[in-house]
UniProtKB/TrEMBL annotation:
Keyword check for Cell membrane: no
Family to which the UniProt record says this protein belongs: Belongs to the LDH/MDH superfamily. MDH type 1 family.
Protein species of origin: Kalanchoe fedtschenkoi (Lavender scallops)
KW Lipid metabolism (keyword) present: no
UniProt keyword list: NAD, Oxidoreductase, Tricarboxylic acid cycle
Enzyme nomenclature, EC number: 1.1.1.37
GO molecular function: L-malate dehydrogenase (NAD+) activity
Domain of life according to the entry: Eukaryota
Positions of the Lactate/malate dehydrogenase C-terminal domain: 172-337
Protein name: malate dehydrogenase
Annotated catalysed reactions: (S)-malate + NAD(+) = oxaloacetate + NADH + H(+)
GO biological process: malate metabolic process; tricarboxylic acid cycle
EC top class, as a word: oxidoreductase
Length: 342
């Protein structure tokens, strides 16, 4: 009898847990470019989320196998695959969050801007479909150059009459993840505690880690600030060179993008304590787009945390002014591209 009651208890506990998972799992997420270097590990990490009920994987090729493989994981979400433009609308219908890592990555010697000609067109086409099929979704843009692809997406959404600046995000989470890692290493801090806001944009000198705002509070020498800032700005190139022609960051990027997806889902689910840095339409500087720390809520950006920009160090003030011309040019290039298209 004792044994039976143990078993019965275990079964009951399992059922309770399963029910909990079932009630939690209620959001649909689409990944566009899901068969790629970022797309595959990102899809795996999203498949592990208890908040996801359906995972829609879209790519122009090779996505069937990725979906079949992932579908065997015994986590709540259902995995569906969609191949090519004729299935894009179905991939997007009813989704709450769309993540876009579609496009070509950098090779050694290339800047993110060198990707513009190919990726701008890909993002434009995908966003047109997003506008037509899930205009209320949170849109996460990973495809580089993010400094330009986000303004492109905004223009396309405007043309379609469905632009909500609170729901369009350039994913800069990897810059924060890198900053946290490098600062923790340098200062011998417990990684889990470290938080460095990163503002500006997502390329070279437009990436501005606010080391003076590091939590927990730490002091850096001028040399440390210089060294850490440059390393965070060039971390992507570190990976591009190490991969020697085989692409750019994919695994750390997938980790960072999954964190941003999970934060978005928590915000959609009513969690009132969700903060992330992200590149959005913004009026905190004289630039129309700018990455800042924001508070996320059910409707997207609930508040921009402007106090990060107060009391900057002299180094940061100068870096902020120095990044503006490049960031402005990238924004204008994106807007011009979107508007010259028929
Ligand atoms: P990848 O080449 O491994 O994968 C890209 C995938 O996109 C491929 O599966 C390809 O078939 C797919 N694709 C191409 N055209 C498409 C279209 N029209 N519709 C749907 N899918 C399409 O490249 P990877 O390494 O996954 O990088 C993807 C993008 O992410 C690149 O633009 C890269 O620069 C960017 N990236 C952004 C980062 C960030 O911090 N925001 C960090 C690292 C990379």
């Amino acid at each position: 009898a004792l044994k039976t009651s143990f078993v019965a208890k275990a079964v009951e506990q399992n059922q309770r847990l399963y029910k909990q998972l079932q009630t939690q799992a209620s959001y649909k997420v689409a990944v566009l470019g899901a068969a790629g270097g970022i797309g595959q590990p990102l899809a795996l990490l999203i498949k592990m989320s208890p908040l996801v009920s359906a995972l829609h994987l879209y790519d122009v090729a090779n996505v069937k196998g990725v979906a079949a493989d992932l579908s065997h994981c015994n986590t709540p979400s259902q995995v569906l695959d969609f191949t090519g433009p004729s299935e894009l609308a179905s991939a997007l219908k009813g989704v709450n969050v769309v993540v876009i890592p579609a496009g070509v990555p950098r090779k050694p010697g290339m800047t993110r801007d060198d990707l513009f000609n190919i990726n701008a067109g890909i993002v434009k086409n995908l966003i047109e479909a997003v506008a037509d099929n899930c205009p209320d979704a949170f849109i996460h843009i990973i495809s580089n150059p993010v400094n330009s692809t986000v303004p492109i997406a905004a223009e396309i959404l405007k043309k379609k009459g469905v632009y909500d600046p609170k729901k369009l995000f350039g994913v800069t989470t990897l810059d924060v993840v890198r900053a946290n890692t490098f600062v923790a290493q340098k200062k011998n801090l417990k990684l889990i505690d470290v938080d460095v806001p990163v503002i500006g944009g997502h390329a070279g000198i437009t990436i501005l880690p606010l080391l003076s705002k590091t939590r927990p509070s730490v002091t850096f020498t001028d040399e440390e600030v210089q060294e850490l800032t440059v390393r965070i700005q060039n971390a992507g190139t570190e990976v591009v060179e190490a991969k020697a022609g085989a692409g750019s960051a994919t695994l750390s990027m997938a980790y960072a993008a999954a964190r941003f997806v999970e934060s978005s889902l928590r915000a959609l689910d009513g969690d009132s304590d969700v903060y992330e840095c992200t590149y959005i339409e913004s009026d905190v500087t004289d630039l129309p787009f700018f990455a800042s720390r924001v508070k996320l809520g059910r409707k997207g950006v609930e508040a921009v945390i402007t106090k990060d920009l107060q009391g900057l160090s002299e180094y940061e003030e100068q870096a902020l002014e120095a990044l503006k011309p490049e960031l402005r040019a990238s924004i204008e290039k994106g807007i011009a591209f979107a508007n010259k298209q028929p």
